Amino acid sequence: MEPMYTGSYQVAKDDYTSAGHASADIKRQLKQIGVSGDVLRRVAVASYEVELNLVIHSLGGELTLNVYPDCVQLVSSDTGPGIPDLAMAMKEGYSTANETARSMGFGAGMGLPNMKRNADEFNIESTVGVGTTITMGFHLR
Amino acid sequence: MEERPYHSVRLAKELCKGCTNCLKHCPTEAIRVRGGRAHILDTHCIDCGECIRVCENHAKVAVTDPLSMIKEFKYAIALPAPTLYGQFRGLTNPEYVIEALRCVGFADVYEVARGADIVTRAIREKLKQPDLPKPLISSACPAVVRLIQVRFPDLLDNVIDIRQPMEVAATIAKAEFVKKNNCAPEDVGCFFITPCPAKMTAIRRPLGQKKSAVDGAISILEMYGQLLPYVEKMMRDPSFQPATKYGVAWSTSDGEANAVCPGNSLSVDGINNVIRVLEEVENYKLTDLTYFEGNACLGGCVGGPLTFENNYVAKNTIRQMVNQMPEIHPDRDVPTSLLNKYPTKNDEEILPRDAIKLDENMAEAMKKMMRMNEIIERLPGYDCGSCGSPTCRTFAEDIVRGYCTEMDCVHIMRDKLKIMAQQMLEIAQTERS
Question: What's the total number of domains in chain B?
């Protein structure tokens, strides 16, 4: 099914100065559309986490917001490097963030678990050398 | 029934040149320049007074009550904001200001700092309850509460349901005066001496209360000149029961948080800084925090647009004064009996004032949003304000809301004219050959 509303953002690797802009814009757009309450706030948290993941871990990628009549969907797809051990990556406290990310207070290993906790539906697919796609769904009402 | 909107911040039409200063500085994008002058959008304005500060032509004004209004009551009680004390350099004791207020015609004076003491205790009692939203957000700055209504409606549950210090002060002042002097309540008027237009609006359109206990607001700017000669004479009234240093410090940023919850609170001043932090609160990023104090003005109320003294100097004056006051916390100074005697809790829910949604119908809103994004693609992105909207994005929003058309953009207009000129030239040349 075609989304009723869609918007996408390019997120560059290591671009810490713009990090957070895409998720802030997603929140603003959702407010203008009329999404509010707990759903809005959960999308805000998850979109921030996924955006930061693109900056910290990926080689760059795209974050897409889709709005359906009954659900808000976030899709993050990057061009690599891919996650070798997904089960490990989903564990709280496990992080492969580099020194730069850690020096800025990131890399607590809570990104993916936080996304999963905030989304009503969470799916992650990753192939080393190809990339990672995360799809999150948030039910409206 | 919805009440007609009231705003203390207004436009003096004859002074407005239609420039873009206020347009660019309004934190809620509540101003548009149309037909050569500014217009304030009722739905978006939070009466913070930022536009008053930046208007070079003094076309943005705050409507407050004149001092002469106190004559409408048989007895007028002054409710000085503690910020008033910060206006007098070298002031060592609030009592001089209080005495000066009596000299200019007030029958009695009740310190809003004393109201702040009582509110401090009420908030501290509230903080003992389990399962409170985190952080609780101060309700003291009405511009911040209105900001939350307009831009962060989901955070209204975090706003503490305790009345503002001026309201508590007015209720007690009037009741005690009536009792002491055995007069009719309607003969007594309570006048807040205000540092800002937001409080004036909060009196006319109360937040969380059906009716304000305050009868009018006189700006500090108007009072300053009247009080100065008396304050300089430094008269004293020894019978006076003063507020604590904590109540007085509510006039400066962090004063409230320090009184209410010194262990785990955050104080933010300046409306744009407040917006940034509220975004974080909305994203559940500050849930380890117990109390949040936001002040629309830099430095707190001492930075109010209706004050006389420079806010940094006023803050220093308050600090020096507070340092000399005895160390008594409202916990000790405000008896529980007083707390129970007068209402401190809101009697009405604060409702959202949603000005963000593009349409009540979500499907329609999404269509408008799509159109908005298409328009934004065509706009130059200079955010120059020449169209009368603060940014290219708000301009696109104004178009989809039906308030203007793409031709109001001078850059699009110029490009269109270029094409037309080219076409006219071509037509002219065709005829010649």
Answer: 3
The Cβ-side half-sphere exposure at B25, using a 13 Å CA radius, reads: 16
Residue A19 forms contact with B (CB below 8 Å): no
Which of A1, A2, A5, A51 to probe by mutation at the B interface, max B CB count within 10 Å?
A5
Q: What structural domains does chain A harbor?
A: 5-139 (3.30.565.10)
Q: Which residue from B373, B193, B155, B389 is spatially nearest to B281, judged by alpha carbons?
A: B155
Binary contact (B369, A37; C-beta < 8 A) = no
Q: What is the band of B100 on the pLDDT scale with cuts at 50, 70, 90?
A: very high
Residues B39 and B153 grouped into a single domain:
no
Q: What is the pTM of this model?
A: 0.88
- 8 A C-beta contact, residue A15 and residue A116: no
Burial track A117-140 (b if 16+ CB lie within 10 A, e otherwise): ebbeebebebeeeebbebbbbbeb
Average of per-residue pLDDT values in chain B: 92
Q: CB distance from A139 to chain B under 8 Å?
A: no
Q: Is residue B348 part of a domain?
A: no
Please state the ipTM of this predicted complex.
Answer: 0.84
Mutate: best of B283, B351, B361, partner A, most A CBs <10 A: B283
Of all residues in chain B, the one with the smallest CA distance to A26 is: B369
Q: Does A32 touch chain B (CB under 8 A)?
A: yes
Report the CATH number at residue B36.
3.30.70.20
Say which DSSP state A10 is in: E
Rg for chain B, CA atoms, rounded: 25
